[in-house]
TrEMBL record:
Database matches in SUPFAM superfamilies: alpha/beta-Hydrolases
Keywords, sorted A to Z: Hydrolase
The protein's name: Alpha/beta hydrolase
Residue ranges the record marks as coiled coil: none
Organism name: Roseinatronobacter alkalisoli
GO molecular function: hydrolase activity
Name of a matching Pfam family: Abhydrolase_1
UniProt xrefs under Gene3D superfamilies: alpha/beta hydrolase (3.40.50.1820)
Domain AB hydrolase-1: 22-260
Stored InterPro entries: AB_hydrolase, AB_hydrolase_1, AB_hydrolase_fold
């Protein structure tokens, strides 16, 4: 574990593997800490010859956390955090592997700092600045559940765990039965690493400063899209839109996978991501 400074913000990071190996920087989605990246996936990628970095976004885990409702940063600020991490580790360029919002951020970094990016792996992501017909998006059932934040008692640990576990369940695909016990255990680990778990939902108020309309089409890096065929949160049409809009992009659609990293599919995801990154080391 290592703390990295990004201006006035401190970002908690963790590395796997050998620093001299090509780097893969993992960028998690909204409200998620580094624990959203399964440790087995990180170790698998490191075992395939990569220096793997994961980190806590602002307002998650052990990174700088502001009180609920008091954050004013933008998505561009989270993109700047990525560059600060690369700088701190002395990484000239890296494959960026982003999940959901992390994939959105990865596209932004590739456009703002093209020389720092070797390639992109975009998991369960949407296109940055989509300018076509409306894409299938977050279902009403998910928003209905989030409305419970207004009355959630954050001092009631069991209620908090149940609320967050329901989010995991709403994101799960049909490829395997939802494991509530495993979900609750992971959430316990998440809660143990932050003094203000409610602050993770500061991400819901984030905006962008710049106009990114259509900009994802300008990405010139090699891109691999990985998307669950049964993603209930950002349906697979989003991943297909990225792959169709970026010249030369590849796409892997995984049946039974939702907006998640199912254990039985981790080895396949690691193998495909590593193969993509290995081909793009130069």
């Amino acid at each position: 574990m290592r703390m990295v400074s990004a201006g006035d913000v401190r970002i908690a990071t963790q590395s796997f593997g050998t620093a001299s190996d090509p780097a893969i920087l993992l960028i998690m989605g909204a409200t998620a800490s580094m624990l959203g990246w399964p440790e087995t996936l990180c170790e698998d990628l490191a075992g395939r010859g990569f220096f793997v970095l994961r980190f806590d976004h602002r307002d998650t885990g052990q990174s700088t956390t502001l009180p609920p409702g008091q954050a004013s940063y933008t998505v561009e600020d989270l993109a700047a955090d990525v560059i600060a991490i690369l700088d701190a580790y002395g990484v000239e360029n890296a494959t960026l592997m982003g999940m959901s919002l992390g994939g959105y951020i990865a596209q932004m970094v590739a456009l703002q700092h093209p020389q720092r990016v070797r390639s992109l792996v975009l998991v369960a992501a949407e296109p940055l600045g989509w300018d076509g017909p409306a894409l299938p998006n977050i279902p009403q059932e998910f928003f209905d559940h989030l409305s419970g934040l207004q009355t959630l008692d954050w001092s009631d640990r069991d209620a908090v765990i149940s609320f967050l576990a329901r989010i995991d369940e709403l994101c799960a695909g049909p490829g395997q039965p939802f494991d509530a016990v495993q979900a609750r255990a992971r959430i316990e680990r998440v809660l143990a690493r932050t003094d203000s778990p409610a602050s993770m939902f500061n991400h819901a108020s984030m905006t962008v400063r710049e106009d990114w309309t259509g900009r994802f089409r300008e990405i010139a890096h090699p891109v691999l899209v990985i998307h669950g065929e049964d993603d209930p949160l950002l349906p697979v049409g989003n991943g297909r839109a990225i792959a169709e809009g970026i010249d030369g992009a590849e796409i892997l659609v995984i049946a039974g996978m939702g907006h998640e990293f199912p254990d039985p599919m981790l080895a396949r995801i690691a193998e495909r991501a590593a193969t993509h990154a290995q081909l793009r080391q130069r």
